Amino acid sequence: MYARVWHVNILPHRLEDFKESLLSFVPEARNEEGFRGYLVLRTDKTGEKPEALLISLWNSEEHLRQSDNNLFLTRAIAQVIGCCDGFPLIQEHEVLLKEFV
Predict the structure, then answer these.
(1) Residue 47 within any structural domain of the chain
(2) 40 part of a folded domain
(3) Alpha-carbon torsion 24, 26, 27, 31, what sign?
(4) Domain limits for position 60
(5) Number of other CB atoms surrounding residue 54 within 10 Å
(6) Would the pLDDT of 83 be above 90?
(7) Number of domains within the chain
(8) What one-character DSSP code corresponds to residue 81?
(9) Which helix (H) or strand (E) holds 55?
(10) Is 7 helix (H, G, I), strand (E, B) or coil?
(11) Over residues 36-44, mean pLDDT
């Protein structure tokens, strides 16, 4: 399993818009082969520019790469960039351990 992790700084007073933007492309994500799910974590609750981590999970590195090739990642960035302070830092990680109850 592989994960794509985004670290974003959200513009002041745009948190709700940011959440709506994310929700708007969830149906497209569900149609991506190998997509397993996502998690969005808010890391700063007190500041004017909230930070968030977005984690999308994929069956394999190949599935993650396919989402790049068919421009899913590009469309996802375009959807949320208007709510962000700068470009998101995006990293990819192999999932070493997992357990979901």
Answers:
(1) yes
(2) yes
(3) positive
(4) 2-94
(5) 19
(6) yes
(7) 1
(8) G
(9) strand 51-58
(10) strand
(11) 90
CA–CA separation, 58 and 51 (whole Å)? 23
CATH number for the domain harbouring residue 69: 3.30.70.100
pLDDT of residue 100: 87
- Tokens describing residue 17: 């818009």
> Could you tell me if residue 101 is inside a domain?
no
Kindly report whether the global pTM for this prediction surpasses the value 0.70.
yes
Alpha carbon distance 4, 65 (integer Å): 10
* Cα(92)–Cα(3) distance, integer angstroms: 6
Residue 45: phi, psi to the nearest 5? -90, -15
Give the pLDDT score at 70.
81
Tell me the two tokens of residue 51: 């930070």
Report if residue 69 sits inside a domain.
Answer: yes
Q: Which structure tokens are listed for 28?
A: 């497209």
d(CA 50, CA 47): 6
User: Would you state the structure tokens that stand for residue 96, as one six-digit string?
Assistant: 């070493």
Token digits for 43? 């890391």
